[in-house]
Amino acid sequence: MSVHSPMPAHTRPLWKTICAGALALAFAGQAQAADGCGYRVDSGTHATWPGGYQAWVEIGNQSGETATSFEVLLDTGGTAITDGSLAKYQPTEGGGYLVNEPNWLQWQQIPPGASYRFHFNGEPDYTGVTPYLISINGKPCDREPPEVSLSASARYFTAAGTLTLTAEAADNTAVRKVVFARDGEVIAEDWEAPYRLELAIDGSGNGRHVYTATAYDPGGNKAVSEQSRLLVAIGDKFFGTAPDGEPDYPRLADYFDQLTPGNAGKWASVEGNRDQMNWQNLDTAYQFARDHGLRFKLHTFIWGQQQPGWIGDLAPEEQLAEIDQWMAAVAERYPDLEMIDVVNEPLHAQPTYKAALGGDGETGWDWLINAFALARAHFPDAELILNDYNILILGQFTNDYLAVIERLQSRGLIDGIGLQAHFLERAELPVVQSNLDALAATGLPIYISELELNFADDARQANAMRDLFSIFWEHPAVVGVTHWGYLEGRMWRENGYLLRADGTERPALQWLTCYLAGGVCDHLVPEYIPAGWSGGEYGLTLEAELYDEGQGLIASGNQVAFTDDGDWIAFRDVEFQQGWDTFQVHYAKGNEAVGSISVHLDDLASDPVLTLPLEPTGGWGSSSTLEVPWAPLAGTHDVYIRFNDTWGVANVDWLRIGKPEPVPDTNLVTDGGFEGDAPSGWQSWAGAALSLSRDRAYAGKQSLLAGERGNSNQFAVYNLTGKVNPGSTYAVSAQVLHTGDTADTVRLAAKVECSVETVPDGHSTFPWLDNNTAVAPGE
């Protein structure tokens, strides 16, 4: 509708004839001040009656330029103007009217100190009129945009549901409307507060989506909210793996629908030499995923364990530039990455160059926040994920991780939570479930990123896989699981494979294939019968971390840790020999509270057959061996080890029941007493100068001196390859004198190096035989 009057007067009222009903007279409404034009706008009514009203609007020039034109947006409170005078009236989208000057105003004008009034009739009942001065002489009177924020009721969907988007908008004059958009396309407009939109979410929308809200004020100024990111994965969870070379690809697509390159995407793998990029292996992984329709996740931008060696030689500002260049290079080569592990293991392996990213800073995690901010700048559409291990195994680890996640989530920088599933072979399943729930409460999707179950026994692996994997897969927050490798001889952990080298499937893989297809699969899981434990004539060593059952603690590397009062481990079917008369425990303890372990046979509730107080050893990295008499017995028993009296009882490496072994006649170390003319068979590990010295000797006349050591990683090594026999046990002993100025670590360790033919290079193990962290000078 366009309503205008030929009348030239600017104060002549337009009267409506009242035929019936009551008439009420009114005067002026609240004035509206303009921001930038020097004008004031007022409104009021001449009269109201049932079913209608007569109103006016007055524009007053307080200090602005002389007006020959104006534009007013008139909010009539949902009523309609039936006729009007002294202006042109045009209905607008969303209600209200845009009012412009009559033609004669270009001659009559509104100079400073003057005013201009127009009048109109409306129906039905009067609910209020609010005018907004948009412009004078074509110049906007309000240049200040609104403020708007957007919140979503969910961050992900793994089942059909409803997404509610809520926008909060404010303006110095008024909010005219809010426009909702998905992936840049307008999906709805809302003209009235509260600004809310409900959307049905189903599998047709699977994928990552970005929602925004744009608020407009009466002057047409607008503001766009921060993005709200949503992942939809309804019936679309993935089961992936992590190839690490050509042998991993031929069977990969038979079992998996997602791919994470195991090593090819790490910075050190791509840019081992500065500015020399080797993309070959990463290209192979990426292209395989694209060719086979597999989802692809990059692993990883920042990780303290595998970073280019040259980065440590640069100044912080150069390091930051290199980090930015690294991400930019990946973005240029792979612009459509879906998922990225931005930072790997921030709780365990922080990068040496974190100062370049801001260090700990005010938050304690500035470097991490800035790393994610860089990744967001280079990859605005990718799923940005934080990844770490040992999170699900204990509640306190989960809480530590949540504190880090919160710092990223409050800044809108994290899209998903990565949970490595290494070392969960003996995890307590209710604890895993509870910790998953706690992480899911963040509203972020969860990625089980690095799963394997390192059991050589097929039945044990299959049972553990069924019990653990079903918790992961059936949790509504989990959107995918990645098994870290799958092929025998190609695993980071030797017995975690699913497919044998001869191409046959282990029972765990058979169950997984059936389960993921929706079948009934328990018949594919063999019954697990513990093999029991037996030793030799001189005893049996029970590696603590290989317990059959346990509660309240964790198996961490080659020990059990986080042992508190009431925690326990059990070894089933231990075969004793009558001649065993000694019990030993090898442990480390860094706190001062004395705890104990007790040994129970066949039932944890039975009276202990032995109780050993465990004194502090000087540090959690300093080990001691405690030896006590053992009452000999025969037969087969379940052995329970209970931790008592305090928190942090001890980190236990191994327990041994046996009798003293005879001293061997032959030392496998040639000239172990260093009585020859040269240190025969000994080599420097990393540059230490080795020589024989007569100044210090434990027995005899000489000792081996390791001098000119630039750092603690430079020490002496002796190669026993070819001298040891499979299945044999060897006693290792050494006498070391520390001649430094301060207390330091003395460590006796081994390197077990697997052949490249059986296990990929770099998968050697380094067990500590003894580790003492507080050896004083002269000891």
Strand and helix layout:
Layout lengths: L23 E2 L6 E2 L5 E11 L2 E10 L8 E6 L4 E6 L2 E4 L5 E4 L4 H4 L6 E9 L6 E7 L2 E2 L6 E6 L3 E2 L3 E10 L6 E6 L2 E6 L4 E7 L5 E10 L5 E3 L3 E5 L5 E4 L10 H4 L2 E2 L7 H4 L9 H12 L3 E9 L12 H18 L5 E6 L21 H13 L4 E6 L6 H15 L6 E6 L7 H12 L5 E6 L6 H17 L3 E6 L23 H10 L22 E5 L5 E3 L2 E3 L2 E3 L6 E9 L5 E8 L5 E7 L8 E5 L4 E11 L5 E10 L6 E8 L23 E3 L4 E5 L9 E5 L8 E3 L25 E6 L18 E8 L4
Parallel strand pairs: 13-20, 21-22, 21-28, 22-23, 23-24, 24-25, 25-26, 26-27, 27-28
Antiparallel strand pairs: 1-3, 2-3, 3-4, 4-9, 5-8, 5-10, 6-9, 7-8, 10-11, 12-14, 14-17, 15-16, 15-18, 18-19, 18-20, 29-39, 30-33, 31-32, 33-38, 34-37, 34-39, 35-36, 35-38, 40-43, 41-42, 44-45
